[in-house]
């Protein structure tokens, strides 16, 4: 009997998720839905490019994260911003976007390398958790009143500055990581609603909007990798301490 009900349960879960997305048809205009499809489609491709970049760092000696690579990332961002968002520049700007995502993945390589040394499952757990968190916060922003989270802009800017000063003047590393994770999640709410409002006012630059969400996704992922690594290291240290005390 349980074997018969399990598929029904999973079907209900996927049906609920499908209804959550399809019910946006009543909230968003056709133009906004088309724009969001372009944004999230580009984001998915960008995350794939970042995954390739991280793999290049982890499994080859072709590229390693360094200062020059960081400068390349900044240069690509500047080129993307300075190139007009017109149809004839679309392929060029998308190439800049993919390059930025690829280098971001390479830059994340050292963090992933450290996590793999502790426990390789940390990376998959962090990615799946990030995808779940990102989806939930994105849907929350899309279902909320259109300007509800736009008022977070000033608060998030102040919180980001406070986090920067904490990083310089304090040693509360774990607190900073949790604070950074919370700020990054709030940015998902803010940026998602801002993208919808910008499109409502005529902004069709889906590539730049993809950059904003890509940065939010990567930031959440990095914070989760750090926090999960800390948790695993603490567990290992406690186990070793218990083993020593047993002797």
Automatic annotation (TrEMBL):
<feature type="transmembrane region" description="Helical">
    <location>
        <begin position="39"/>
        <end position="59"/>
    </location>
</feature>
<keyword id="KW-1133">Transmembrane helix</keyword>
<comment type="similarity">
    <text>Belongs to the BI1 family.</text>
</comment>
<keyword id="KW-0472">Membrane</keyword>
<protein>
    <recommendedName>
        <fullName>Bax inhibitor 1</fullName>
    </recommendedName>
</protein>
<dbReference type="Pfam" id="PF01027">
    <property type="entry name" value="Bax1-I"/>
</dbReference>
<feature type="transmembrane region" description="Helical">
    <location>
        <begin position="65"/>
        <end position="82"/>
    </location>
</feature>
<dbReference type="GO" id="GO:2001234">
    <property type="term" value="P:negative regulation of apoptotic signaling pathway"/>
</dbReference>
<dbReference type="GO" id="GO:0019899">
    <property type="term" value="F:enzyme binding"/>
</dbReference>
<keyword id="KW-0812">Transmembrane</keyword>
<dbReference type="InterPro" id="IPR006214">
    <property type="entry name" value="Bax_inhibitor_1-related"/>
</dbReference>
<dbReference type="GO" id="GO:0033119">
    <property type="term" value="P:negative regulation of RNA splicing"/>
</dbReference>
<feature type="transmembrane region" description="Helical">
    <location>
        <begin position="94"/>
        <end position="112"/>
    </location>
</feature>
<dbReference type="GO" id="GO:0034620">
    <property type="term" value="P:cellular response to unfolded protein"/>
</dbReference>
<feature type="transmembrane region" description="Helical">
    <location>
        <begin position="118"/>
        <end position="142"/>
    </location>
</feature>
<feature type="transmembrane region" description="Helical">
    <location>
        <begin position="175"/>
        <end position="192"/>
    </location>
</feature>
<dbReference type="GO" id="GO:0031966">
    <property type="term" value="C:mitochondrial membrane"/>
</dbReference>
<feature type="transmembrane region" description="Helical">
    <location>
        <begin position="149"/>
        <end position="169"/>
    </location>
</feature>
